[in-house]
Amino acid sequence: MAELVDRGHHLLAQAGLPTPLNDARLLLADALGCDLHQLDQALLLDRTAEELLTNGVGRRQADDSQSAALDRYQSYLQRRVGREPLQYILGHACFRYLDLRLGPGVFIPRPETETVVQAGIDALTGVDHPLAVDLCSGSGAIGLSLATEVPGARVRAVEVDKEAYRWGALNAAAQEAAIREAGSDYQLLLADATDSAALSDLDAHVDLVISNPPYVPMDAIPSQPEVRDWDPDLALYGGSPDGCLVPCRILDRAMVLLAPGGLLVMEHDASQGAAMVAAAQERGYLDAHTHRDLAGRDRYLTARRPG
């Protein structure tokens, strides 16, 4: 087993991957149908892949074998050498308490967005049956976190891209039990988040509008291939040289959706903190501030509709 990890580690390191050992271990575990703890235990006991499968630790398919599992592993490694995101190859990723299904066509949620979600959760603490709207919902990471972590929350999510909407719907279905357990309600709408017709029945009634809109400046093409070549452009670029066009449209829509005193929480680029605060103030928001992520970079705006 150790030689399989070493082989993958070496191949991915040669390809210039930033975390080759971690990627090789995750890919091998998935190919064998086990988790990392089970893989590490097998490595310590010097078990073979066949032993792992035969002993029922790996999720053996009807005709699965060591050969089939190793073929999967090799295929995974080649895809990763081609800089396909690890999350797409594995088909899922963890975000806060969620295990989200992911694949080509949907934006991969980042750890820094977890701080954005926490700001939204904090804002809803103590609110009875709060109403929240997730604009540009993508995989559903933000809205589904609210629906499963805030008891009694009513969450409405909006996504314009059909492929991203499909992934969001899959994740919503997978979280149905957790949403019911929280006493919450979650609904996903295929629509343009900046369109005044989307959720117009909620205008002036929403406690929280939360969003991770596309905000990358048009001329700031990401250097990382996993982002540049795989994340959907529609989810990345903010529609203007400074990347602020779409976020400003979210500011406009949120001002209408929010009830008096309601809060907007919106992620933005590290370079856009001052611009977003100024844009919010120009539109009449109160208490507009940018906040930093765990890496110390400006990451999200909070602003309140006047009461």
From TrEMBL:
PROSITE patterns given in the database record: N6_MTASE
Catalytic activity field: L-glutaminyl-[peptide chain release factor] + S-adenosyl-L-methionine = N(5)-methyl-L-glutaminyl-[peptide chain release factor] + S-adenosyl-L-homocysteine + H(+)
Keyword annotations of the record: Methyltransferase, S-adenosyl-L-methionine, Transferase
Pfam families hit by this protein: MTS (PF05175), PrmC_N (PF17827)
Domain of life: Bacteria
GO terms assigned for molecular function: peptide chain release factor N(5)-glutamine methyltransferase activity
Boundaries of every Methyltransferase small domain copy: 132-216
Name of the protein in its database record: peptide chain release factor N(5)-glutamine methyltransferase
Source species of the chain: Bifidobacterium kimbladii
Recorded name of the encoding gene: prmC
